[in-house]
Amino acid sequence: MSDKITDWDPSTPILQIDNLSISFFTRMREIPAVMDFSCTVRAGEAMGLVGESGCGKSTVALAVMRDLGKNGRITGGRILFKGRDLTTMSDEELRHIRGSEIAMIYQEPMASLNPAMKIGAQLAEVPMIHEGMGRDAAWKLARQIVADVRLPDPDRILGSYPHQLSGGQQQRIVIAMALMSKPALLILDEPTTALDVTVEAGIVDLVKDLGEKYGTSMLFISHNLGLVMDVCDRICVMYSGEAVETGNVTEVFDKMRHPYTQALFRSIPLPGADKNSRPLISIPGNFPLPHERPPGCNFGPRCDYFEKGRCDAADIPMSAVPDSDRHGSRCLKWAEIDWTAPPAARVAKVKTPIGKVVLKMDDLKKYYSVSSGAFGGGSKKVVKANETLSFEAHEGETLAIVGESGCGKSTFAKVLMGLETATSGSIMLFDENVQSTPIQKRNTDTVSRVQMVFQNPFDTLNPSMNVGRQIIRALEIFKFGNSDQDRHNRMLELLDLVKLPRAFAERMPRQLSGGQKQRVGIARAFAGGAKVVVADEPVSALDVSVQAAVTDLLMDIQRENKTTLLFISHDLSIVRYLSDRVLVMYLGHVVETGTTDQVFAPPYHPYTEALLSAVPIADTHITRKRIVLEGDIPSALNPPPGCPFQTRCRWKSQVPGGLCDREMPPMRDIGGGHQIKCHLSAEILEKMEPVIKIAAE
Amino acid sequence: MFPFVLRRLGLMLLTAFVLTFAVFCLTNLQPNLEKLARSEGSVRMSDDAIASWIVNNGHGGPMLKRYGEWLGVVPGWVRTDDKGVTRGRCIVDGSDPAQAATYCGILQGNWGYSTFAKVPVTTVLGRSLGHTGWLMLAVMVVMVPTALLLGVLSGMREGTRLDRILSTLAIVTTATPEYVSGVIFVALFASATVGISPHLHDWGWITEKTLFQGTATSAMDDITWRNFTLPVMTIALYGIGYIARMTRASMTEVMTQQYIRTARLKGVSFRQVVMKHALRNALIAPFTVIMLQFPWLLNGVVIVETLFNYKGFGWTLVQAAGNNDINLLLACSVVAVFVVLVTQLISDVGYVFLNPRIRLA
Fold it and tell me: Which of the listed residues B56, B86, B108 is the one where a domain comes to its end?
């Protein structure tokens, strides 16, 4: 008893979506989420669905699963899967297809696994439902698939609960679950967004290999163009509920025929972009709300090529690009636009001079002690969150601190801000030692000069206070000005500074978009004339087109105020784009530091090398060496002896005498202030090849 | 796990001391003792006589010392009166004072003598707890499964007609206090003149005058449908509504979780989604609530036992309070404290087993 559809001709598309329209119905109105969407996925093909949040890409995926919730309804078009229309299927028929023919992989692995059920039971359930397999056989299959997704010690994993696994392992389990019944179509909804880059690289490799091994077709949803280029054969770019461009990956990346695709590519930091000479170009304006879409072309109001009376006259159909591999564009003017012309708006900016040292950390350590027993008690253990952290930051400089989750970069920020005090070592801020002064005891002047921009703009603004009040509150705390009038005026200036209209002072945070909220966060941080700003992943929660605008804003303010920016990020593309110097951290240690050019070119620290190779780059001219790190980051509770990176290092065998296992490598200078914490000899470092190569055009 | 339970037990002991001391102080206030002297001695005693009665019967002296005596960590009082008769806390009337124990508090098993029932407190308490035990068991058996079923049924499809109906029902039952629902039940089912009983009798469906009995006194000897249904239903009804609401809230939340979507998109049938994936997760929150119901039940039985004249713990508590029976009142509070603390411990430990993510610290 199997649920598989057998009467299907493999030469026809496995998934064919024709003119699909989906709406959500609220009490007030019908909100169209997806309009006139068509796409075709052939057997063995991987289709990428790209777009910013709210563009409807996840809605399309859920429509294929026919799981749109209570208010969502398919209002037009059809979805053919293996020649059968999914939109007219009964619940019972759908149930047979879900999990057996079409499987889905989700964004947040932790949330998508049942916390109270063992992994094995969750996996074995799939063949037991669809193939009527016995319990023992199903567990055996589960064991085999768990080994297939390259998880160590499958037996232990089958018997554990989801919370006992790391994020990367959980995602592998979700993938294993999707593969249990060897589905014909796999839908991946941002499968790696919640994971670290090196873990992401492993997952992406796995998905690609399994796709080839089982011949599974894929619908890959992502906002990351580089990732789509890595995984997919074909791509479909969505904007505001419509597919705007579709075609094979190389054609769309190299010969895009829609202004939105072009704008999107211009707003992401590719190698070669530079904050001074070749700044990013953000897309002007905002994403239209679903019930406020403009007439005609949805992208019209933000488009450089917009022609009044023509682009906003009527709905625009998808038109095919001749002499291409099923390439189509939803633009009236695609044939008239000169696609090779350089962007007009690009203005080169002056590089800020780097001034004197404003922040100096010397041999900073931060340890936490935690108890290990399950019911409390037990022996005390020490987490070494930061070990021997030494560096200097100069006025007007952007220093990037790079590393994956758990490397200690946020702890460092907390110690600097005074939310925690250092275990040992010193922090010289201007001319003051602040390592053991908690923020409550710092004077107003110090507090206002060191400020932070937080990662998640959605949670860091008080939801019940209007924007102006929040900024004035910061000014009051910093004891700025003599009267309320002074502070009100300064608040309006700050809004100007972050390029928000002055009328926004009266708005509540919920009335702002993510990018606008982050601007308020920046205004608040600069309220007291901050000289050092710690930006903890300031743009990672924002959409690509908004990211560019917010980074540019930060850079502009830095230029004006000569601010020192400590940019904490895991995103190497943006780090290369905006930072002057880079600090790479791993397990609490700084493993490499130097200017951006030094760090991004060989010789590398082996960890930096792996990190660089893991970042997907959305450029077809670039070839990247694939280095996939095995395993997870070791726990800071129980760090490996010797070099912290030795458990995952591919160069370890090049160091004679097992030195890496025994001794912590010293920090050494390999020329021009470029420092590396590694045992590798100078000759071997010399021979390292660049990870990223730009092919000649 | 073991050190955790040990720690909790220690904490419980401390709580028990504090609570019993508070009750001891309140019941041993001067006016209370004077009242006791009048009821035990003579109503027409002079103020001086009352004062000496209090001292002579071991109720004088510092509060802490008396509490220690009651607990059994301080030697019991011994006093020889003018007639040369030696009396004391530990001396049974008529026995040799020399042979009596020095300590005789609750730690030695001496809970004192009930002035109201004229028997040792342990006898009264044992009997009444036995009665209440049966009542509580019946209530739990009816209440928990019904409430969970109602909660799960209304929570699994939020906003449907079934959900609305069950929710309204649950709100109505929780909003009705026992003394109201009890009276309504008696009128409806246990009256020979109003309610449904006369009709049922006329139609010949029941042989007795009433469907159920309005008093549960006979249930103390022999529990039957007729005498036990109404008290059980009165207590259970309130709890059903309450637990059902909790379960519904928990269930609706679980049903919106991503792992439920995962299960649905794996092709698991709705029935199995509810049974295998949602239920265990949804029961974690109501479990604590159910455990909290035990102490609350002790509360509920006060009203219901008095209403239905069922001589259990609640009835005894009311009588002890009404008749100024200090020892009995103290014993009741010890039992209550014990029940509350033990159920809390069970609830915390059980929570760990239900929820694999929780580690108690």
Answer: B108
Q: What is the domain extent for residue B10?
A: 2-108
Q: How far is CA B114 from the centre of its chain?
A: 20
Q: Are residues B79 and B150 in the same domain?
A: no
pLDDT digits (tens, 9 = 90+) for A577-593: 888 899 998 888 888 88
Residue with tokens 């001319």: A431
Inter-chain CB proximity B266 and A98 less than 8 Å: yes
Distance CA A161, CA B360 (A): 17
Domain-located, residue B113: no
Angle at A375 between CA A370 and CA A377, to 5 degrees: 45
SS3 A234: strand
| Helix, strand, or coil (residue B121) | helix
Is A161 in Cβ contact with B258 (below 8 Å)?
Answer: no
Are B67 and B167 in a shared domain? no
Of B55 and A236, which is predicted with more confidence? Answer: A236
CA distance B164 to chain A (A): 16
How far apart are alpha carbons B67 and A89 in whole angstroms? 76
Count of residues making up chain A: 697
Residues B256-262: what's their mean pLDDT?
A: 88
pLDDT digits (tens, 9 = 90+) for A519-546: 888 888 888 788 888 888 888 777 777 7
pTM of the full structure: 0.78
Within a domain: B156: yes
pLDDT of amino acid A696: 55
Res. B168 pLDDT band, cuts 50 70 90: very high
Query: Do B282 and B153 belong together in one domain?
Result: yes
Identify the contact set of chain A against chain B, taking CB-CB distances under 8 A. 3, 65, 67, 70, 95-100, 103-104, 106, 108, 111-117, 125-126, 129-130, 161, 163, 174, 177, 371, 373-377
Axis crossing angle, helix A514-525 with helix A544-561, rounded to the nearest 10: 20
Helices (H), A149-223: 154-158, 167-179, 197-214
**How many structural domains compose chain B?**
2
Establish if B304 belongs to a structural domain. yes
Q: Are residues B262 and B316 in the same domain?
A: yes
Query: Quick one: pLDDT at residue A250?
Result: 87
* Long-range contacts formed by A65-71: CB under 8 A, 24+ apart: A65/A98, A65/A102, A65/A104, A65/A187, A65/B265, A66/A94, A67/B261, A67/B264, A67/B265, A68/A22, A68/A24, A70/B159, A71/A24, A71/A25, A71/A26
What pLDDT shows up at residue A345? 61
- Phi-psi sector, B272: left (phi>0), alpha (psi -120 to 50), beta: alpha
**A15 or A168, which is more confident?**
A15
Q: Region B175-191: what's the mean pLDDT? A: 88
What's the gap in Å between the CA of B10 and the closest CA on chain A? 16
Same-domain check for residues B128 and B89: no
Are A80 and A39 within 8 A, CB to CB? no
Phi, psi of B35 (to 5 degrees): -60, -40
- Select from A478, A476, A458, A457 the least CA-distant residue to A468: A476
- Minimal C-alpha gap between A636 and chain B (Å): 20
CATH number for the domain spanning B311: value is 1.10.3720.10
Q: What residues does A399 pair with on adjacent strands?
A: A566, A581
Nearest alpha carbon to residue A244 among A283, A191, A217, A192: A283
Q: What is the pLDDT of residues A23-53, one digit of tens each?
A: 888 888 888 888 888 888 888 888 999 888 7
Mark whether B64 and B149 lie in a shared domain: no
Q: Do B276 and A117 touch (CB under 8 A)?
A: yes
B217 & B168 share domain: yes
Question: Are A342 and A361 within 8 A, CB to CB?
Answer: no
How far is C-alpha A205 from the geometric centre of its chain's CA atoms? Answer: 17
Report yes or no on B140 lying in a domain.
yes
Which amino acid, A520? V
| Domain end residue (candidates: B43, B74, B108) | B108
Q: Within this chain, do residues B341 and B243 fall inside the same structural domain, yes or no?
A: yes
